[in-house]
Amino acid sequence: MTTIKALTGSLEDYLEAIYHLLHQENKARVKDVADHLQVKKSSVTVALRALAKQKLINYAPYGEVTLTLLGEKTAEDVVRRHETLKEFFITVLDVDAKQAEDTACKMEHVLSKEMTDKFIQFMEFIDICPRTGQDWVEKFHNYCGEKHASGDCKGCLNEVKEKIRLLPSVKTKEETLCALSSLKPGEKAEVVKIQHKGTFRKRILEMGVTTGAVLMVERMAPLGDPVDIKIRGYHLSLRKEETKNILVKILR
Amino acid sequence: MTTIKALTGSLEDYLEAIYHLLHQENKARVKDVADHLQVKKSSVTVALRALAKQKLINYAPYGEVTLTLLGEKTAEDVVRRHETLKEFFITVLDVDAKQAEDTACKMEHVLSKEMTDKFIQFMEFIDICPRTGQDWVEKFHNYCGEKHASGDCKGCLNEVKEKIRLLPSVKTKEETLCALSSLKPGEKAEVVKIQHKGTFRKRILEMGVTTGAVLMVERMAPLGDPVDIKIRGYHLSLRKEETKNILVKILR
DNA sequence: CTCTTTTGTTAGATATATCTAACTTTAAGC
DNA sequence: GCTTAAAGTTAGATATATCTAACAAAAGAG
Ligand SMILES: [Mn+2]
Ligand SMILES: [Mn+2]
Ligand SMILES: [Mn+2]
Ligand SMILES: [Mn+2]
User: Fold this and answer.
1) Considering only the top CATH level, what class is A174-251?
2) pTM for this structure?
3) Which of A43, A161, A210, B121 has the most neighbouring CB atoms within 10 Å?
């Protein structure tokens, strides 16, 4: 039997904490988890037993805690929901970091994959659509903070006008294209062309690196290998070799 | 003592159900609440006791349930959060009604007033900003559903161009203005001028009807009295007399 | 005004998530 | 290597939210 019941929100939080501790400190001790979640150690012990019973972690009393493959997958899923909501709250709604973090961690447990994808697509669309982009988001933040004078709209329209005038680079496309390898951490770009063949190409597509997708470079090792990117809410690590043949269009 | 503890999510749901039943059916029986929330009647009895203890409802065994003033206020607050999230999910993210309803009702319990306001302002801004509006939202929905061809952006830009060409009606403002009383149910508008004086004006401003605010006409009685509007997430009922002297600019 | 159905309550059970207090194991200091 | 300090576990308590089953009150039908 052992019905694979959906995890409770509480257990998702424990799993998430373990995931972060393992990736940041290389160990997830009971005490660390307890501190992280602001609960007592005895509560953690109980939770660990529950997670172990569901085959999400490897655990025995006094033993060290590691994630199973299923646990790793499940944790990544929770983290994706968490980060998606948090990013929306901070970058779009302009909510302060702490509140965004707290609210995201409470809401993440009831956000379906479908809706997570919608949130991600929405943020992508804001970035991609020439009408909007980061400057439009900033307009919104000002709209929130201050009185909205009619003059703002007029000025704003002129900006879009200018944006449009500059944009018919649809023909002179080449100029705006560059290899993924040439991006700097923090930069966002739209995938335009994947110049890979066979299995390699297939693998990369499976990871979500498809034409039209928006990615952001998160980290880049000194020699540019590997390159950590975030795409569709997922974190990926690519070999330098793999990034050279992915052509992108830098956003903004 | 009787520390005024924050309501649990569960109790907020009971309160919300009672609120809706009282406003729609004029009575909130234990059975109705149970059906509404898909729980057993015995669970409702327990919840009613808890709500009564917190002075949110008037209740005695076998007696009828009514909301106290505090309960009414609190319920309105829950409903505002619920409707705000649901509206965002449906109108912006294009999530289907059922999932939007369910997710909103789970998330509403952890959404602060501040963040609720942000969501509302964001939807207002999409409506008000000449760059975006409903047509932009539709672009997003198409972007989600289908492959995003580059041609779309080009066409989209031409639309904005046209929008801008038509928009320098900033000077010929008068033409686009009209009295709130002349709107039809479902129409949205931005408040431009409130031609009221003294106490009346003050009262109306307190209710959230201020210059720049976006409102939507929800219902209008046969003779146009009263007019039910939604503004900043709040439902208001205005006398016909009061709507005549509120000048608005219809959106879209 | 009785009888029956519906509605509502109570008591007791189960499940989750937390805590405190007492105890056990492991790790550190010297 | 002992001895202490830190980390981890267990047992038992509390709180919330639900359920089932048995019972009580109110409403409806005739
Ligand atoms: Mn969480
Ligand atoms: Mn989280
Ligand atoms: Mn709810
Ligand atoms: Mn709700």
Assistant:
1) mainly beta
2) 0.94
3) B121
Measured CA B51 to C1' D26 distance, in angstroms = 23
Q: Are A156 and B118 inside 8 Å of each other by CB?
A: no
Q: Ligand 1 centroid to B81 CA: how many Å?
A: 20
Rg of chain B, C-alpha, whole Å: 22
B106 contact residues in A (CB cutoff 8 A) = 110
Q: Encoding tokens for residue B184?
A: 């039809």
**Confidence band, pLDDT 50/70/90 cuts, at residue A169:** low
| Residue range(s) in chain B whose domain bears CATH number 1.10.10.10 | 9-74
- Distance from first CA to last CA of chain B, Å, rounded? 54
Alpha-carbon distance of B107 to B46, in angstroms, equals 23
What's the pLDDT band for A1 if we cut at 50, 70, 90?
Answer: very low
Check: CB of residue B75 under 8 Å from CB of residue B18.
yes
Report residue A149's pLDDT band, with 50, 70 and 90 as the boundaries.
confident
Q: Which ligand is nearest to the CA of A20?
A: 2
- In this predicted structure, the answer to whether residue A79 has a pLDDT above a threshold of 70 is yes
Q: Is 1.10.10.10 the CATH classification of the domain at A9-74?
A: yes
Task: Say yes or no to pLDDT of B176 above 80.
Answer: no
